[in-house]
């Protein structure tokens, strides 16, 4: 069981375990091959025991297994030396002496290779001396062996040091990257949790808002219905009162004037009720259109005739530019008529008999014409005009513009008009060069609603 957390040590120990496994197989094969040689068999069994102990120590995650393996390799390589192989001048260092240095350098630490080389020299000297090598030969062999083994060890230690340093730097970089990734994952998880909580709060707020809007829409419809019922009763009572006064022979002219005033009041109240009801339907997305083939030019002319008296009362001139021939569209005629009435009524309200000190006469014009795959109805006046800020805000429910201060109204007429036109697939565009420069509103309805 590996118990170290050092990633480099894990890699080195894994490589050492692979090497030891190969040597264990070789030793097992040697036991089978030399089972008849007791002396050699004893040596192999000792090596096998040492290798098994090294495997156990290595799996514990320590360097003790590599140290034991290095010492066993030093002893085995020294015991395998023969003095006769060194009697030849310039004889190279046997490769078997290099093996312990390689093991120590690669599997323990690079600097341990120096100590392994020194122990290898000492072990080789002892083994050669015990095998009867002359002292003069030892004095010749050992310096040459030290130089060759030292050069090889130095090259191996430097290379291994560079390799291990690079590996450790890469591991450190990977660890830092993993730590950064873990931090980012934690931050993402925290932000995700916060976002989920915010979404839940937003969903709850939307649900509450939808309930409030639905309740408001219901209350608006109920209020509009009650007002309309009350107006109907009052209108009937006024009509009966007028008939009774006429039958009684009272001043008919004064009665007619009073009746016109009452009629205008009723019309304004009725328009407000209709706008309230339409606004409630728009907010609850329950507006239904009753489409029918309609001559839009004739409908617009009828609205102009309805408001001619109001324009005359405000001492404004009202013009209608009728197109050549009818313009048929499949629309909800009653709602489009209400739209034109709202827009024309606003134009009359904000265009006075004298626009400025020069005595310029107030003029309002309504034109109907075909335009860009549809029909355009434009209402132009030379009244009080609008600011750029007003043009951005116009059409919001219950919104009063800065240029409309001092006049009555709720701001619902434009809001409901835009909603009705949008339901037909059309648009309403307002334009003005500024306060005192008049205004133009253009209603565009698409041609795909045209009748056959």
Largest sheet, spatial ordering of strands: 2-4-5-7-6
Helix/strand order, N-terminal first: HHHHHHHEHEEHEEHHEE
As residue ranges, the low-confidence spans are none
> How many discrete structural domains?
2
**Fraction of residues in β-strands:** 5-15%
Give the count of helical stretches: 11
Question: Which oligomerization state do the chains in this entry correspond to?
Answer: single chain
Helix content: 55-70%
Mean pLDDT: 79
Shape: rod-shaped
Number of strands: 7
Structural class: alpha+beta
Give a short account of the largest sheet.
5 strands, mixed
- How big is the Rg? 53 Å
Could you give the distance between the termini?
Answer: 90 Å
Catalytic activity: ATP + protein L-histidine = ADP + protein N-phospho-L-histidine
Coiled coil: 167-215
InterPro entries: BphY/WalK/GraS-like (IPR050351), HATPase_C_sf (IPR036890), HATPase_dom (IPR003594), His_kinase_dom (IPR005467), HisK_dim/P_dom (IPR003661), HisK_dim/P_sf (IPR036097), Sig_transdc_His_kin-like_C (IPR004358)
EC number: 2.7.13.3
Describe the structure.
Its EC number is 2.7.13.3. It catalyses: ATP + protein L-histidine = ADP + protein N-phospho-L-histidine. GO terms for molecular function: ATP binding; phosphorelay response regulator activity; phosphorelay sensor kinase activity; protein kinase activator activity. Keywords: ATP-binding, Coiled coil, Kinase, Membrane, Nucleotide-binding, Phosphoprotein, Transferase, Transmembrane, Transmembrane helix, Two-component regulatory system. Residues 222-449 form the Histidine kinase domain. The chain is an alpha+beta fold and 452 residues long. The protein folds into two domains: 63-286, no CATH class; 292-449, Heat Shock Protein 90 (2-Layer Sandwich). 65% of the residues lie in helices and 9% in strands. The chain contains eleven helices and seven strands. It has helices spanning 7-33, 38-59, 64-79, 95-107, 112-130, 135-247, 252-283, 296-313, 333-349, 388-393, 412-423; strands at residues 292-295, 317-321, 328-331, 363-370, 374-381, 427-431, 439-446. The strands form two sheets. A five-stranded mixed beta sheet has the order 2-4-5-7-6, with helices on one face. β4 (363-370) and β5 form a beta hairpin. It starts with 6 loop residues before the first helix and ends in a 6-residue tail after the last strand. The mean pLDDT is 79.
């Amino acid at each position: 069981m590996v118990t170290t957390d050092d990633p480099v040590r894990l890699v080195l120990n894994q490589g050492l375990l692979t090497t030891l496994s190969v040597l264990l197989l070789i030793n097992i094969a040697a036991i089978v091959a030399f089972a008849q040689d007791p002396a050699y068999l004893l040596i192999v069994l000792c090596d096998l025991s040492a290798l098994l102990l090294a495997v156990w120590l290595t799996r514990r995650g320590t360097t003790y297994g590599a140290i034991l393996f290095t010492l066993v390799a030093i002893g085995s390589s020294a015991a395998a030396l023969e003095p006769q192989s060194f009697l030849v001048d310039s004889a190279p260092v046997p490769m078997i002496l290099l093996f312990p240095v390689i093991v120590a350098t690669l599997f323990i630490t690079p600097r341990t290779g120096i100590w392994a080389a020194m122990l290898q020299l000492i072990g080789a000297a002892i083994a050669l001396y015990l095998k009867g090598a002359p002292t003069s030969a030892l004095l010749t062999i050992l310096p040459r062996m030290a130089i060759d083994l030292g050069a090889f060890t130095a090259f191996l230690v430097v290379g291994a040091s560079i390799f291990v340093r690079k590996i450790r730097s890469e591991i450190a970089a990977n660890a830092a990257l993993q730590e950064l990734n873990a931090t980012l994952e934690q931050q993402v998880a925290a932000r995700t949790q916060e976002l989920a909580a915010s979404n839940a709060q937003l969903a709850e707020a939307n649900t509450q808002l939808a309930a409030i809007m639905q309740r408001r829409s219901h209350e608006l419809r109920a209020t509009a219905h009650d007002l309309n019922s009350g107006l109907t009763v009052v209108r009937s009572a006024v009509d009966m009162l007028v008939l009774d006064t006429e039958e009684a022979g009272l001043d008919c002219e004064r009665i007619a004037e009073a009746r016109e005033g009452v009629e205008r009041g009723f019309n304004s109240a009725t328009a407000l009720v209709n706008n309230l009801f339409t606004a409630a339907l728009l907010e609850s997305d329950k507006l239904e259109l009753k489409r029918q083939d309609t001559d839009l030019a004739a409908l617009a002319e009828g609205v102009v005739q309805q408001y001619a008296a109001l324009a005359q009362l405000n001492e404004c001139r009202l013009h209608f530019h009728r197109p050549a021939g009818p313009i048929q569209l499949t629309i909800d005629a009653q709602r489009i008529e209400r739209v034109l009435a709202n827009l024309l009524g606003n134009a009359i309200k904000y265009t006075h008999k004298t626009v400025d000190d020069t005595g310029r006469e107030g003029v309002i014009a309504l034109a109907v014409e075909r335009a860009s795959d549809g029909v355009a109805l434009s209402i132009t006046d030379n009244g009080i005009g609008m600011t750029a800020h007003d043009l951005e805000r116009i059409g919001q429910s219950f919104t009063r513009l800065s240029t409309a201060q001092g006049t009555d109204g709720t701001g619902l007429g434009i809001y409901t008009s835009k909603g009705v036109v949008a339901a037909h697939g059309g648009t309403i565009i307002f334009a003005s060069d500024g306060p005192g420069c008049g205004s133009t509103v253009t209603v565009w309805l698409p041609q795909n609603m045209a009748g056959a």
